[in-house]
Amino acid sequence: LAIGIAVAEWWPIPPAAAALAAGVMTAALFWAARGRRLFGVTVLGLAASIGAAAAAGARPRPPPDLVDGKRWILVGDVADTPERTAHGARVPIDLIAVERDGLRRSVDVRVLVLIDGPPVEPLLPGDRVRVPAELHRPRGFVNPGAPDAARRAAAEGIAAVASAHAAALSRLDVLYQTAENWPELLTVLQHE
88-125 burial, b if ≥16 CB within 10 A, otherwise e? Predict the structure, then answer.
C-alpha cells in the first residue's frame, strides 16, 4: 500500500487509471494463484495499485476548464473563518458559480483564495463573496522543510487555489429566507 500511495503522491495518476491498474492486478492475482507462479510479486503489485487508487481518489479534483489559467469571477460562500497568515489571509470558499465573458455557470467545489492583506470587510462563514481570480491546482513541497500545501488542501477538501488582492474580495449582501428573518423579508418585499 505504501508504495502505491508514494507513487500517486509523486505522479498525478487519474483515479480511473489507478482503479484499472488494481483491476488488472486482481486478474493477475487469480492467474498467479492458478499457476502457482509469482504469487508474492502479484500480491505486492495488487497492494501497490490499491494504494495508488486510494491516494488518487483522496484528492478533490476541480473541473478541468476551471484551472485553465484564465481569470474567472468566483461567486461563493465563505466556508470557514479566514485564517491570518504572515502576508495576508487564507479564505476558503464554497463556490456556487463562476463567470467569464458574460457567461455564468454553476459549480460545486471548494477553493482557497489567498489574499495579500486582511479582508477589507469582516468575513464570517456563510457570507456570500465575489472575487476575480485565476484558479490553479494546489502544489506540494514548494519550499523544502515547509508543510505540504497540496496535502493540507486535500485534507480540507480544497480542489483549487487562487490569489487576489484583499480589495478585490467583496462581500455580497444576500437576504436569506429563513424563519428568523421573515419580518425583514416582508418589509423588503413591500418596498419593491
Answer: bbbbbbbbeebeeeeeeeebebbbbbbbeeebeeebee
**CB-CB contact of 87 with 116 (8 Å):** yes
In this predicted structure, the answer to whether residue 62 has a pLDDT above a threshold of 80 is no
**Pairing mode, strands 160-164 and 83-84:** unpaired
How many residues in the chain?
192
pLDDT single digits (tens) 114-137: 999 888 888 999 999 999 999 988
Nearest to 113 by CA among 68, 167, 55, 61: 167
Per residue in 140-168, pLDDT (tens digit) is 666 677 777 777 777 788 888 999 999 89
CA distance 95 to 72: 12
Q: What is the pLDDT, as a whole number, of residue 137?
A: 83
How far, in Å, are 118, 122, 148, 153 from residue 140 at the CA level?
A: 25, 30, 5, 9
110-115 and 160-164 strand pairing: parallel
Cα–Cα distance for residue pair 74/1, rounded to 1 Å: 38
Q: Cα 104 to chain center, whole Å?
A: 20
